Amino acid sequence: MKYSIDISSDDIQNSLLEEKINFNNFDKTKPSYDFNLDNHIGNVHFKEELLSGLILSDWESRFTTNTKLTSYHLTPIFSMHFMLSGYVNYEISNIKCPIKGGQNNIWSISEDKLGYSQYKKEMSCSSWCVSFEEDFLTRLVNAYPDLLTDPYLRHINGESFCMHKNHMSSNCDMNLIISQIKNAKLMGKTCHLYTQAKVMELLALQLQQLENKRNGLPCLCCLKKNELDKIHEAKNLLLSDINTPPTILDLSRNIGMNEKKLQNGFKEVFNQTVYGCLFDHKMNLARQFLLDTDKTIFEIALECGYEYASHFTTAFKRKYGISPKQFKRLNE
């Protein structure tokens, strides 16, 4: 898969990012590619992992202004796309394709095409996708012709399209599988086999959703559209004041959803518990303070909602395996 990405904010080109996010020469002998950006435009973390005909891509971003990314695809792409959080307005071959957290689709992008994605100011966005290399995709179509022949023919004929024009809602099973794939390294030597099997399971769930849509059957989704919006609202409220975060009861009252549905909704949409989400946010914030500032451990503890530095140190070590002091020393 060969493509490049440029970024612009308020019509000012960021040449550093334009130079760095360039995947035309992706080295297939290496198992993964990591890119990190942290400058005046915002924060981006992007990772691609190559695995036996599959390319797993993980994107996280937060921009300081309304931002537009321009991508140029030198080779065709056929992929399963999952928006985990946030909102992005994609446009490829004059096809507008806005998508928000909790939605998914299967799409094809033909070669030599420009694509655009627009990100809103100060919105945290994360997405995850699996792209199929041509040989792998061909074998898959030959194995399951009834399921994949039609979209495959459209794909190889150079058509760019989304298999469902309005996107589909990701369900609990899909989010669980994505979480399992992300943690597949825990499987040791069976990691690649396990990941490939889980990708096939995920594809089967997407194709089932498409079939249900065509036949007018309800999709196996735990949350409705307005409930998804409430879950995102709850996350924003939760993280708005980490020094005095609301209780789950407070959150449920504020968004008008019962506690059990709120807790299950967090697991479905964010693959985390409510307080697991808060904990990860605190630890990510602490990591940035340690990397980018000269604040003391006690000051960082207070910034991250911990009254005692010892409690903060214990939490940080549980997350990263080393103490804040050790982390800072390793990154000096």
TrEMBL record:
SMART domains: HTH_ARAC. The keyword Transcription applies. It comes from the Bacteria. GO terms for molecular function: DNA-binding transcription factor activity; sequence-specific DNA binding. Keywords: DNA-binding, Transcription, Transcription regulation. Residues 232-330 form the HTH araC/xylS-type domain. InterPro entries: Homeodomain-like_sf (IPR009057), HTH_AraC (IPR018060), HTH_AraC-typ_CS (IPR018062), PchR_regulatory_protein (IPR053142), Tscrpt_reg_AraC-type_HTH (IPR020449). This is Helix-turn-helix domain-containing protein. It comes from Labilibaculum euxinus.
